[in-house]
Structure formats: structure tokens, C-alpha cells
Amino acid sequence: MARIVMKFGGTSVADLERIRNVARHVKREVDSGHEVAVVVSAMAGKTNELVEWTREASALHDAREYDAVVASGEQVTSGLLAITLQSMGVNARSWQGWQIPIRTNNAHGAARILDIDGTDLIRRFGEGQVAVVAGFQGIGPDNRIATLGRGGSDTSAVAIAAGVKADRCDIYTDVDGVYTTDPRIEPAARRLKTIAFEEMLEMASLGAKVLQVRSVELAMVHKVRTFVRSSFTEPDAPGMDDFDNPPGTLICDEDEIVEQEVVTGIAYAKDEAQISLRRVADRPGVSAAIFGPLAEAHINVDMIVQNISEDGTSTDMTFTIPSGDMDKAVAVLEKAREAIGFDAVQSEQGLVKVSVIGIGMRSHAGVAATAFTALAEKGINIKAITTSEIKISILIDGAYAELAVRTLHSVYGLDKT
Amino acid sequence: MARIVMKFGGTSVADLERIRNVARHVKREVDSGHEVAVVVSAMAGKTNELVEWTREASALHDAREYDAVVASGEQVTSGLLAITLQSMGVNARSWQGWQIPIRTNNAHGAARILDIDGTDLIRRFGEGQVAVVAGFQGIGPDNRIATLGRGGSDTSAVAIAAGVKADRCDIYTDVDGVYTTDPRIEPAARRLKTIAFEEMLEMASLGAKVLQVRSVELAMVHKVRTFVRSSFTEPDAPGMDDFDNPPGTLICDEDEIVEQEVVTGIAYAKDEAQISLRRVADRPGVSAAIFGPLAEAHINVDMIVQNISEDGTSTDMTFTIPSGDMDKAVAVLEKAREAIGFDAVQSEQGLVKVSVIGIGMRSHAGVAATAFTALAEKGINIKAITTSEIKISILIDGAYAELAVRTLHSVYGLDKT
């Protein structure tokens, strides 16, 4: 017997037929003797509808009222799933965030979970009751509903799993796991059986949109074994109750992964823009002079590369931002030209960042060199490089995105089982 | 300055344009210097949609889960109205039933309000804040959302008014007040400026569907002056802020009504059926033998008339029920024939109960005789009569319904100002 948290997103509970399918997944785990909490999102489309209404009511709306309106979507789904489970003979009840309670900070609309009291839920597990928890929400210190921001139900699920000390948090989604790269680009991409928290964090933040980044962070901190699997596989399909050979990907501590690969996956992020400031005065405080105004303008800067120029008294500063912010960023920098001190701004859109990710590269040399050689052989020009302990990110022209992903996927042997 | 509770129903908040109209009504009262709490229903159609989903999920659903699902409709409206008020510069916040809290009993789906703690609301009135309260709901002793049953927002509003010791509870509705009778039947029907609680109770329970019966009972018990007015009148229309000459009807204590009329209104209830048991053995317990089985079959018995028959040893028992229950009632009685002991069952459908209502008749003789004479002059046959202190109800053939209403309306001078 295990204690499991199961999470189902909006498309999995889009209508009553799908909610019945979710209930059958839950019943399967209950029938296997497990203690179960289920976390649900709003029915697909509902959250957008509610958000749109708050915008229509006022463009500048009170985030606390936004939360009261938008959180109603998950409230509905939790009640409907509880009813459906009961009709199948499963003892179940719904829980709103304020009932458990799931305590958050006061950042309405994008609140962070501070604490979950799992006492009541655990007591009811003991009585054989399934908890159906409305995702995406908790209660703030002001005793008002606080939502966690879009996609927050993943975070709810992991937090509940930590709060009730679950053995596993199953995230049911419209994909059947995490792949070595995007299968739409590389058909030979393989589903990973396991991936370490740190690797998943890099995959998620780079655009492999299986799980919300915050939920992976939370899973890593609390060591919640998180299992990504498909909600559209039939509940009674072979292997669905066989966790030793699971139809999904387990995100877990690296110690649990027996055969660690050097490289686990290739991620990419589209629509990047690059800005270069030429001949920036090389003096203390110049980075602050550049990135301060950009931060104030809410422009998210990603890769930053700094080179000493030939004469040794000035520097070239290159960084990437989302393409959509490029014109705004150039305007901000031109306005700050005197304060910063530079010769020229150069900018380029339509770039792609391709990343090689793997915990194994910490103990293996030559991983980066392999990537550079492979891309050079295909004639792909590298515009910028940044590296971390477990990741190499390479900025290239967008036209070469697919070729680069396939090349790197192959050169690290990810297409071989 | 007064303290006012304003209540708006589903059609008044059906979309964001109408919600803006509601906000303008609220702003008018705030600008007049009043302290204001607003109680809102769900957007028109939303509650039906949510109820239908709970039925689809399971015909026999847990009432506590039904409540969690259905109460979300009012939660949405309360947040949207708060946002809209804020955008007009009005300091406002939404309140869910569990936040105030509005404490109810445990009868989920049809809960009764036990207690409202108005402390927090009153403190915020002092800070100039408008409370926007989600109607139709509270929190049960099990710490779960409990709804008050359909139309419960009227009851919420009156209960909030009692809880915060409001000077008045304004019920905004799609009619502009309570009329001496149904204007669709008698175009000369007049809007009443005032009506006593007891009279309104009779009017409401007899099918003048302006206010929920329970809300009138509650208003009577707590002496909440309740003002029925139109939400579709423009907020800045003449007289809307002139409570001394109000465009609506004030339901209040009879002591407040200076010029009490003998008869206040003529109500009617359609689709009544009459059942007569002939030659029932006249013995103790016979009433229980008849009405016990009917109650067990959930058949609502209204008028009951008992006459001693000629021979003095048996009696004729006549009563009315909703037409739709007639066949069921006859079957129940036939089954209990031996236990009851009677000669025959006679039944008739398509009847109408017309009622003359007025507190003044307590101190005036001859009110009933006037009705009987007037109906007789029009050739309308009376099938049964019941009376209370402030009401005379007459059962007639349905074909004469409109004629009877118009005749009685005229004979008591209700068509004259």
C-alpha cells in the first residue's frame, strides 16, 4: 500500500465524460489498496472565461477579487469529481484550499504556498476516504482565497504530496512522459523512464511544457517523487497499475537513478532576440547601468555574455531577451545611453536557444566540445554560449533549430535505447 | 445616513453590462452617504447549468458536493461586482459565506441560517467600505459550504440586514414592487406603497412570486424593513434616491403603516385539485388516518374542510392538493380505504384558489360576506372556503379565475387610488 497524490489538468476534466474517466483512474488506485488524494484543475476553457470576465469588469482589477472569481473553476470540478467517485462506490469528498487549509502568502494572483496542514487529510485516509482537492488555490493571511498563478495545479499537487508525506505524486497530462527531446522535431525521441529533479528543472524552464517550473522546484526541495503519465490512456490498460514498469516518467532524486546518462535531453526555446552593446566603457557598475533599466521595464534577460574588446579599455556586452520585447529594450537602452556609455546597439531577432542537459556532464569532460564540433560539421553558426554544471546552452539562427536539435540528439546517442 | 442592504437577482447580474448597472445603483447609495452591503445571486442561467452538471455526474448526489459546485456561481458574481465598483472609485470587497461567516445548519442544499456575525462588516462600513456578499450560501457546522435552496439570495439579504442591523433591505427585482393583484389579469392593479409582513407572507405563499417566502418570514421575525424595487429603472431616474416617495413597495411592521386598508390585495394559486371523501366514519384519529399516508407520499395538502353529514355519524372530508399529485393521492387513499373507512372518493382538477388578504379585516366585519355576494352576482360557484385572521381563500372552477380576481379587486376598491 502506498499513499498517492494524483493530479489531473483542465483537458482531463473538460466535461463529465472525461471526469468519469478520471474517476476510473482514481478507482483503480483505490482498488489497489492505495491511499489517494486527487488534485484537479478547472474544466478546460473555464479559467480563461473567468479571467476574461475580470478583464471586462476592469482592466486594472483587484487581484484578491480576481482570485475569488477565478478559483471558482476548480471548486466546481472538485465537487463534480467527488460526486462521480461516490456514484462508483468510492468514498470521496471535495476540499477547497481554505478548508484544508493550504496557507499561502499574500501575493494574490501569483501566491506561493507557505504551509499545508495534512493532519485532517491523513486522518481521513485512515478512514478510507479519497480527498478531492481544488487545485491552483489556497488561503492567504488575509483569510481570502489566493490563487497560485496559471498552471498552479501542478504546484498544488506536489505541495499536497509533501504535506501528506505521499510516496508519489502522479501528474496525469496529455503526454505520456518526458522525452529526450520534442518528438515533433525528432521522431526518434525516446520517453525517459527517470529524470533527476535538476534536469527536469532545466527541461521545464527551457520550454518542455510538461510541468510547471515551480512545481519541479517544490518537488526537488521536498524530494517528492513525481510521476508524469498520460490521462488519456485507458485506466485499465496494461501496466497502468504496474509502477515498476511504468508508462510514464519518474522525476526523482539523482541517487534513485541507477544508470545515469551523461546527457538526458535536448531542449530548445524559440523566439529569442539578441542585443549587443558595442564598446561599453569597462568600469565598475556598468552591468547595473544596463540591466537595471531593463528590469524596471519588466524585460526578462536570459543569457549574458561579456567579452573584453581588443583595446582592453572597453567591453562588448551581449544578452538575449524574448523577441517580443526587443524594440522596447532597444528604446530603453538608447534612453540610458549616456548613463551607460556605449558606441552602438546591435540587435537580432528570430534566434533559438538549444540546450544540452544532463547531470552526468558534471563528471564527464568533453561534452561541450562534442556539441560544438557536431554543429560546426552541419555548418551551424554559434552566436553565443552559456554553460552551467548540468547544461550547455547555444544560441543559433532560428532557421537551424530543427537541424541543431536532431544533430545534438543523435551525437549524444539519445535516439538509441 | 442609513445602513442599507441591497440585493440583486440573477437577471440583474446576467452579464457585465448589467453588473455595471448594478454598480451604478450601489454608487448612488454610497454617494448619498449610506453604508452599503450588496447581496448578489449567480448570473442568470449559471445556477441551472451547475445543477445540471451535478445531476449528470450522478442522479443521487451528495448534497455537500452539490453545494460546493452550485455556490461557485455567486462567488463569481461577488468578485466581478467588487471589481466593477472599484473601477468606479467605490471602495468595495467581496465576501463569501464562510468568510463573514454566515453560519447555517447542516441541511445541505436547503440549509437554514442560524447566525450571522456582522462585526467585521460593520467595522468596515466605518472605514467606508462596501461589502459585496455572495448570496444563497453559508458555512455549515461541518466547515463546508451550505446553500440555502433555490431563491435563497433573498433570504441571505434579509439575514445580512438583520446581522448588521440595517435600516432597510432593498430587494431589486424585475418588478417595481408588490401590486394589489397580478397586473396581467387586472390592468387596474396598483402598486402598494407599503404592505405588512403578515400580508406579504400570504401574498408570497399564494404565488405572488416577488419574494421568497422564507425571506419574508425572516424579515418579520427580525423586523427588517424590506423594500422591493426595480433594478431595471435607471440608477439616476427621478425618485431613486427619494425614499420618502419611493418607486417600490416597503414591507414593514403593521405599526408603521399609517393608513391601513381593510383589504390589501387579491392573490391566486392555479392548478389546484380537490378531493372529497364521502361518508367518512366520524371517529377520533380519522384525520390522521387520511393525512398521514398523504404526507408520507410527499403530497402537500392545502385547504381542509370538514362537514358533519346529515346522519351525524359520518362526515365529508374535502381538501386541496396540487393538480399534478391528484392521481397519486387517489391511489394512496384507495390503498388506505379500509384503515380510514369511507364510502367514495371524488376528485376534481383544474381549480383555482383566490384569496382576499388584509390585516385590516381583523377589525372589520363583513369582509367575507362582501366577497361571497360579489362572486354570487357573477354566477361563480364556490367549492370550498377557508379563512384565517387576515385572509379569506375561496376555491372555484379554473375557468372563472380571471373574472373572480377582477371582481374581488373591484369590490374592495383596490382599483381606486
TrEMBL record, chains A, B:
Enzyme class: transferase
InterPro entries linked: AceGlu_kinase-like_sf, ACT-like_dom_sf, ACT_Aspartokinase, ACT_dom, AKii-LysC-BS, Asp/Glu/Uridylate_kinase, Asp_kin_monofn, Asp_kinase
A GO MF label: aspartate kinase activity
Annotated Gene Ontology cellular component terms: cytosol
Residues that, per the record, bind ATP: 7-10, 173-174, 179, 184, 209-210
ACT domain segment(s): 275-356
EC assignment: 2.7.2.4
Domain of life where this protein originates: Bacteria
Residues binding substrate: 47, 74
Pathway: Amino-acid biosynthesis; L-lysine biosynthesis via DAP pathway; (S)-tetrahydrodipicolinate from L-aspartate: step 1/4; Amino-acid biosynthesis; L-methionine biosynthesis via de novo pathway; L-homoserine from L-aspartate: step 1/3; Amino-acid biosynthesis; L-threonine biosynthesis; L-threonine from L-aspartate: step 1/5
Keyword Ribonucleoprotein in record: no
Keywords of the record: Amino-acid biosynthesis, ATP-binding, Kinase, Lysine biosynthesis, Nucleotide-binding, Transferase
GO biological process, alphabetically ordered: homoserine biosynthetic process; lysine biosynthetic process via diaminopimelate
A Pfam family annotated for this UniProt entry: ACT_9
Catalyses which reaction(s): L-aspartate + ATP = 4-phospho-L-aspartate + ADP
Family recorded in the similarity comment: Belongs to the aspartokinase family.
Name used for this protein in its record: Aspartokinase
